[in-house]
Design a protein that fits this description.
Elements (H helix, E strand, L loop, with lengths): L5 E7 L2 E7 L5 H8 L18 E4 L2 E4 L12 E3 L12 H8 L9 H16 L23 H7 L10 H15 L1
Parallel strand pairs: 1-5
Antiparallel strand pairs: 1-2, 3-4, 3-5
Helix pairs in contact: 2-5
Length: 178
Amino acid sequence: MTKPGHPIRLVVNGVGHELDVDVRSTLLDVLRERLALTGTKKGCDHGLCGACTVDVDGERVLSCLTLAVCADGADVGTVEGLARGDDLHPLQQAFVDHDGFQCGYCTSGQLCSARAMLREYARGDLSAASFDGGADLSCPPEELSHTEIRERMAGNICRCGAYPNIVSAISSVHEATC
């Protein structure tokens, strides 16, 4: 006996999709198995590594912990939606220029998280690193330091240890847009 599906609508990387999904399906599994968007990786499947990070309505989420039915009606952005044809997104180009990846498994989550993190910083969200004892907590630090970037990207694990290069890549994109 087949289980009845639950209808959902998603806009993924600008393309609309109407799907019937099992209410237990994660957004990660729907992206990978139903929509064939395999750039988003299943790393730990427990929300610990960040390899599955995607944008949902402009906020970064761990797609392995997000039920697809909870994303019904959402605008979802994955790593496949970053580049425009042959033109890499500035973060993708910076990761290439700064050797911000080694094995590449975490890269899609790192890129999606970095894009969201830069938006969060720009809108004034604070991080734990913002609380340096004497900081004006009414606004984020004026400079997005490497310490701030490391703190804000802490949920994304790179088993190869490319952190200094990832931080440099993100910093270069931030500096270029300021």
